[in-house]
Design brief:
The chain contains 10 helices and 8 strands. Helix 5 links the parallel strand 4 and strand 5. It has 256 residues and is α/β, with parallel strands linked by helices. Helices cover 39% and strands 17% of the residues. The two termini are 14 Å apart. The mean pLDDT is 97. An 8-stranded parallel sheet has the order 1-2-3-4-5-6-7-8.
C-alpha cells in the first residue's frame, strides 16, 4: 500500500481525465490521497472531492505565494473549514522567498495564523519552504505547535534544516525530485531521515519523477518515488510503502 501525501487534485490539468487518474492510482496500490489547499476559496471544491471519494482527504490553507491574491486568512476562517470531517491538516502554508510574489511580512502573518490554528485544534501543518529556512525555523521555534506538528513537504532543503525540523518533531516528505540525476544531495539527506518520520508525495501535477520528468505528474507516480527511496535504504518498495503509510496515519490522525 502507498499513500500520496501531497497532491493537487483540483488542478485544471486533471479535469479531462480525473476518473482515470484515480483509477490508475488504485491499480498501482496508491490507496489514499491527500489533496492540498492553496486558497481558502478553493476549499469547498476540495471538500466535494473528498466527500465524493472515500480514499481522499484534504487540507485547509493558503499557499505563501497566494497570500497576495486572497489576503491573509483569519484564524477563525481556517478553523471553520477545518471542522470538515475529512480536513486533516492546515496548509500548505510556510514561506517562499524565491519568487517574491507576496510581501514577506504578509506571508509571515499568514504562516502565524496557520500555526496558531493548528495548535488550537491539535492538527498538523503542511509547510512549504523555499529560500526561507532561517525565518521558518525562527517562527516555528518561537510558537506553540501541535503534538504532531506537521510535515515539511517536497523537501529540498539543507541537511541542517532537515535536522532542525526533525528536532522540532516534524516529518519530512520526499517528492519525485529524489529521482532526478542532479538530486544527489537530497538522496544523502533521505538516508538520515528516521524511518518513522518519512513520507512520500507527488506534488502532482508538478515534479513528475523519472521516467516521466517534464510531463504531467499524477498520484500513481508516487510509486516511482517509493522505489527510489527504497533502493537508497536497502529495503523493498513494498516495505517502504508500509512504513510511509503507517507514518501518514500517525501524523494525520483524522484520516482512517
Amino acid at each position: 500500500m502507498f499513500i500520496d501525501s501531497h497532491c493537487h487534485l483540483d488542478d485544471p490539468k486533471f479535469v479531462e481525465d480525473f476518473a482515470d487518474i484515480l483509477h490508475r492510482a488504485k491499480i498501482m496500490n496508491v490507496q489514499r490521497l491527500l489533496t492540498i489547499s492553496t486558497l481558502l476559496s478553493a476549499v469547498p471544491g476540495l471538500q466535494k472531492i473528498s466527500d465524493d471519494h472515500p480514499h481522499v482527504y484534504h487540507s485547509v490553507g493558503v499557499h505563501p505565494n497566494d497570500v497576495q491574491q486572497e489576503g491573509v486568512p483569519t484564524g477563525a476562517a481556517l478553523k471553520k473549514f477545518a471542522q470538515h470531517p475529512k480536513a486533516v491538516a492546515f496548509g500548505e502554508t510556510g514561506l517562499d522567498y524565491y519568487y517574491e510574489h507576496t510581501d514577506r511580512k504578509a506571508q509571515q502573518e499568514s504562516f502565524l495564523h496557520h500555526i496558531q490554528a493548528a495548535h488550537e485544534l491539535n492538527m498538523p501543518l503542511i509547510i512549504h519552504s523555499r529560500d526561507a529556512e532561517e525565518d521558518i525555523l525562527s517562527i516555528l521555534k518561537s510558537h506553540k505547535l501541535a503534538a504532531n506538528p506537521g510535515v515539511i513537504h517536497c523537501f529540498t532543503g539543507t541537511e541542517n534544516f532537515a535536522k532542525d525540523c526533525l528536532d522540532l518533531g516534524f516529518y519530512i516528505s520526499i517528492s519525485g525530485i529524489v529521482t532526478f540525476k542532479n538530486a544527489e544531495a537530497l538522496r544523502e539527506i533521505v538516508k538520515i531521515i528516521p524511518q518513522d518520520r518519512l513520507l512520500i508525495e507527488t506534488d502532482s501535477p508538478y515534479l513528475a519523477p523519472m521516467p516521466y520528468r517534464g510531463k504531467r505528474n499524477e498520484p500513481s507516480y508516487v510509486v516511482y518515488t517509493a522505489e527510489a527511496i527504497a533502493n537508497l535504504l536497502d529495503m523493498s518498495t513494498q516495505k517502504l510503502g508500509e512504513i510511509t503509510s503507517h507514518n501518514f496515519f500517525t501524523l494525520f490522525s483524522k484520516a482512517s
